[in-house]
Amino acid sequence: MDLQGQTFALEATQVREILDLVPVTEVPGSEPFVNGLVNVRGKVVPLADLRLKFGMEQAPDTIDTRIVVIEIDIDRVPTVIGIRADKVHEVTTLDASVLAEVPRIGTRWRQDYIRFIAKRGDDFIVVPDLARILAPGAAEPAADPSKPGATPPTTSHRKTATLALAGRPGEL
User: Where are the beta strands (DSSP E) in the chain?
Assistant: First the structure.
């Protein structure tokens, strides 16, 4: 997904569908990054704005704004969630050779929120760990891997990863 000019990718197996923007019902008192509900084929689905989880500012919707409907396991329960995206592009396969672990320094996002960083041409693609980001208690600070008992995030190793990519035109 394109979020404020940064390209993010989701595993294609998580993506159920991509929708044009639909009316959003705000939920007073909810977490700021999941503060609305949308109707997806007759089902009530929470709508998340990952920009807020990544410390970005909310932006007004545009003609390119989409909702990426995903299904992920949260606490071992299949959960359907809508993710607001500034723009959506294509499905592609990235070879494992372009997937890298998140550098321990030099990134502006919480390291435990990122599964991989992929290199494509001159651009970097961020593959977020949606289950971790959306899990209850995800607003709590990340565990410090240097402290006893802390477990650093792990990276899943694969030969290839099929990802639904979103980004700016010409990037992919």
Answer: 2-3, 6-11, 15-20, 25-26, 36-40, 43-48, 66-74, 77-85, 90-95, 99-100, 114-120, 123-128, 160-166
